[in-house]
């Protein structure tokens, strides 16, 4: 698999999880992914974290939101 395909797959996974967290609202998930500063990660966006290779951290954060953590 090429690097581009791998990157796209990672972004899709994060957006799918963010969509689930947002109650199925893909538009809200995309807005969060691209624009919302995440305090736990020095106010960087999920998009910038994924670009840095930290998709697993973003997915863990989203999983904690699904489990009821409000941060």
Given the helix and strand composition, which structural class is it? mainly alpha
Overall pLDDT confidence: 93
Report the major sheet.
Answer: none
Oligomeric state, counting identical vs distinct chains? single chain
Could you say which overall geometry the principal axes of the C-alpha atoms support? Answer: globular
Helix content: 55-70%
Q: Given the structure, what is the number of helices?
A: 4
Low-confidence stretches: none
Cα-based radius of gyration, to the nearest Å: 12 Å
Number of strands: 0
Description:
By secondary structure, this protein is mainly alpha-helical. 66% of the residues lie in helices and 0% in strands. It has helices spanning 3-21, 26-35, 46-51, 55-66. Helix 1 crosses helix 2 and helix 1 (3-21) runs parallel beside helix 4. The relative contact order is 0.15. The model has no long low-confidence stretch (mean pLDDT 93).
